Amino acid sequence: MINKSQIASFKSNGYVILKGYLSKDKIKKLKKEIEIISKKYDIKNIFSSQKKTFWKKNFKQLNNLRLELNYKNKIFNNFFNTKLFFSDTSKIKNKKSKKFKVDKIRFNIPTFKNKLHPWHQDEITWPNRTDQNPVTFWVPLVDVNKNNGIEFAKLSKKSNFLLPHKYGSNPKTKLKFATFKNKKILKKTFKPILKTGDVFIFDAFLPHRSCLNKTSKIRISIDTRFK
Ligand SMILES: O=C(O)CCC(=O)C(=O)O
Ligand SMILES: [Fe+2]
Question: To the nearest whole percent, how much of the chain has pLDDT over 90?
């Protein structure tokens, strides 16, 4: 459960780290499910260290696996509706929370650059649902650090508006790969070190991007949202 000082910190900074927020057991069960479903896609030992050729060879099937987990899996769908996320969002917002239906399972595959999110604010990525200021619960299923995690801007003052973005070059993914026109604000950044069970929550205006995965293991994380 989120405490008062964490709520205060979230409000003044636009983010807060919640240490030991979920049980390790809960995360283990999600990983177990991934391992079970991954067999269907002929992917063995998905959470082990693997050579680059393994990730290359399985790239397509990993994407199919991710899509199944994201959109068709009961256990993950239940996780997207975790009661604790609802109740803590209510506490943060001082009103009854609702689901903001953007839930993603991210596969950050070793050394693959092309699917990584460049610097952005999440507000740009849902043009039909702006001004709702959802809270994102970013949940790593493996330990993360500067070599496989996520990077945030450390601003002198919390941002409350959308900064100018330029769109991605592919019309199909132009919003997904939108990035800041002016990168000067990104002088100071931080990459949280998180253990399984820790959760990072942030608002729609906090600039962030994916770290390149420099390890030999996949980084899987979930981002799920409430308003
Ligand atoms: O997990 C990542 O690498 C980036 C995720 C992201 O941009 C988000 O959760 O909004
Ligand atoms: Fe994002």
Answer: 95
Q: Is the pLDDT of residue 211 over 90?
A: yes
> What's the number of domains the chain is made of?
1
Residue of the CA atom closest to atom 10 of ligand 1: 122
Residue type, 143: D
Q: In the predicted model, what is the mean pLDDT of residues 119-132?
A: 94
Given a cut of 80, is residue 221 above it in pLDDT?
Answer: yes
64-70 long-range contacts, CB within 8 A, separation 24+ = 65/34, 65/37, 65/38, 65/40, 65/41, 66/105, 66/107, 68/37, 69/33, 69/34, 69/37, 69/105, 70/103, 70/104, 70/105
Q: What pLDDT is recorded for position 69?
A: 98
Going 177 to 180 to 181 to 186, the CA torsion angle's sign is negative
Is-above-0.85 flag for pTM? Answer: yes
- Note down the domain range covering 110: 4-226
CATH number at residue 30: 2.60.120.620
Residue nearest ligand 1's atom 5 by CA: 210
Backbone angles phi, psi at 153, to 5 degrees: -80, 140
What residues line ligand 1, using a CB cutoff of 6 Å? 106, 108, 117, 122, 136, 138, 150, 208, 210, 221, 223
